[in-house]
Amino acid sequence: MKKSFIQGPIPAEKIADSIAHHKHKTNIGAHDIFLGQVREDFIGDLSVISIAFEAQEELSEKTIYEIREEAFANFSLTCLHIYHSLQNVPVGELCFYVFASSPHRDAAFNATRYIVEEFKKRVPIFGKINLSDGSYVWKENKTK
Length: 144
Known about the structure:
3 helices, Aldehyde Oxidoreductase, domain 3, alpha+beta, 8-stranded mixed sheet, 8 strands, elongated
């Protein structure tokens, strides 16, 4: 089972490397990429400065694996990568990365959307939203 968690923000180089490593796979006609970024929201008068992500890793990895296998079973995919951050991720940094490859664009588009929505519904990841006054609140996953 491939590991999906990255400690801290997802570096832009990881995305560039993923793209570069697929150029030899000439049966791929489309890639679709979803990037989740920590957004500077406001809760009352306080701004979000970061989110510290936590997970029960073994259970989460198992669920991510199930979602990955469902995507391969339901969409004509050639390759698929799913990564999510653990630990602290500052505003503006990437925390979630899905990269789907297929012979045709519809499969890549549809698979990416499916993976993101199922991930949000099923994977037990928790985010502690760190606020500008030093306090925090727990993040609720929204599916849309």
